[in-house]
Give the backbone structure.
Amino acid sequence: NLFGNAKNSRALRFAMDNVNYAMESMTRSLRMGLNYYCGASTPSGLEETMDCTGGGTLVAFVPQNNPNIRITYKWATRANGTKTIERCEGNVCVEVVSSDVNVEFFKFYVRGSSPSDNLQASVYVLVKGSVDVKGVKSSFSIQTLASQRNF
């Protein structure tokens, strides 16, 4: 029993470390962005910006070191019906959390999205979900704030 419990505990820790790493990576990327866009659908151009004080399930931005692409983080549904977080460059998207993680709530709140706003852009991220390890669900809730570093 002890060996089985230790194995389950390691699996849970691995999944939660994965979620924390995904959030840290997303936050670092957001800090170095420009032209933020928040909403429910992908923006049409690199210059398009939009704040969302009511929250959105997608945030897109142009990386400071590569102004010719747009990176998008979004809430997506897997084939099995569970939810995940995807990072997209153009039309190529990859999951940033493991398959053990079900992201039940994912919202972005963006303020100061346009460079003409003369505000330091900030992106507030809320994530709630659960990790399923051998039929046992453990809930988590993470929130973070990323402020633009190249202001």
